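(Fold this chain)
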Amino acid sequence: MGSTGIQIDVVVGCPVNDEVERVLGLAEAVGEPVTVTFLWEGRAEAERAVLVPAATLASWEHWAPGGYPGGGHAEAEEGPELARPATFGPFTLFRRRAGGRTAVARGGVVVAELLDPGEAHWLEEKARGVRQGFMDPGQRAAYEEFLARQDGV
């Protein structure tokens, strides 16, 4: 899954389980995307997601050309869940009714979002491609000067 290098498997047995709080705190402290597998009580299948810090997601969305063509989570297509936020210690999870993302807030500030692994990978790759092709005016002038000197050699 691209450069998302940390993978954590979390078993969530009930809403007060402190494992979720610990994994959210770890992801916030690490400051990079963390792949998480949730085994929610009452669900047959595990839910895989990538917990992306808010600043990283903002950068990816700035550079990525357009939105993810695959949509969000499957649940978003089946219909929205009850809009009750889930609280784990100082973290509150807000599932968006449109798009299937889940915002993770602490102290009233969104610190990360849970994304579908496919969407996270797509955003990261598209953002990297656009960002690498972008030069600010100073870089562009220096590069053009460098190229001009190469022709004269």
